[in-house]
Amino acid sequence: MSRSTRWIVVSVVLALVVVLLAPFVYSEVREGRTPPPLGLQSPGESTASAAPAVPGPFDVDGEWVVGPGSEAGFRADVLDVPADEAVLLGVTPDVTGTFRVRSGSLQTATVTVETTTLRTGSSVADRQLQQALETDLYPTTLFSLTTPLDVSELATTTSPVRLEASGALTIRDETEAVTVALEAQRSGDGVLATGAIGVRFSDFGIAVPPVAPVQVRDEGTVEVRLQLVRPATP
């Protein structure tokens, strides 16, 4: 199958996904169960609370990994449903990643999201969503830091620290430069980091045809809520 033909098939399948999800999304909004954000929708907007920090000095330098309790997801606005505007969120707890801090500067960071386990709340829609994202060919979404980031403030405060990180985001077989709005805070003896990446889905070859009976905005977010812990000692 040619690349152009494959994208047409993906667009049609995604349109079917939206149709299948419309009643579910509406019921969630009507019942007040619209999923809350996993991360920041804009710089400075707090969305998650951290566990109390362990008293004493805190060394931010060294190696960190994504630990249990982390999750990531895709959020998009669904239009033309009975609610004026409904929000759809597919989430997975299958997130891995590594971070390296030197002299208070985050030097490297990679986060990998397993898109094959994204869940929307509808099993039928979940299967169709996997087809739309072609998770059999592209089972993960990857973020990589491209510019060092000063995180030294985490060593001196237990309050949230707001940051912006520059990186590269790969969805399917497309990679785009992105900016991540972050909030990081000491949590226990680790760090809780939440963030959101604004994306245009068409940049990654994902689009709903204009003739589709239900539409989603082309703009959405990739959201993360990461529990960062020290790697286990061998």
TrEMBL record:
Pfam families: YceI (PF04264). It comes from the Bacteria. InterPro entries: Lipid/polyisoprenoid-bd_YceI, TTHA0802/YceI-like_sf. Residues 32-53 are annotated as: Disordered. SMART domains: YceI. Residues 63-229 form the Lipid/polyisoprenoid-binding YceI-like domain. Belongs to the UPF0312 family. This is Lipid/polyisoprenoid-binding YceI-like domain-containing protein. It comes from Cellulosimicrobium cellulans. The lineage of its organism: Bacteria, Bacillati, Actinomycetota, Actinomycetes, Micrococcales.
